[in-house]
Design brief:
By secondary structure, this protein is mainly α. The chain is built from 3 helices and no strands.
Length: about 90
């Protein structure tokens, strides 16, 4: 469980480094998006037969980072939409 949390944090941090621009996401949001991305990556790797969902493998890691980058983009769009309607 601790390894899953650490992997989620690393994946979330890498996704934030890859995503251009400044993200208005805190530590917890980065961790949560990284965790969701790692579950997505593990699921896709499992479906492709390259490993188990809870097992760290190269394909799952790459897909997890890509999924996290996309999730950060979605989170930013939602957050910016809220800020625009609040003004």
């Amino acid at each position: 469980m601790i390894g899953f949390i650490v992997a989620g944090l690393v994946i979330g941090a890498l996704a934030r480094l890859i995503k251009p621009g400044k993200q208005a996401l805190g530590f917890l949001a980065t961790l949560l998006l990284g965790l969701v991305g790692s579950v997505i990556g593990g699921t896709i790797a499992n479906l492709l037969g390259t490993g188990d969902i809870w097992e760290l493998n190269v394909l799952g890691f790459i897909v997890a980072v890509i999924a996290s980058v996309l999730l950060i983009g979605v989170a930013e769009a939602i957050a910016s939409g809220r800020h625009k309607t609040a003004h």
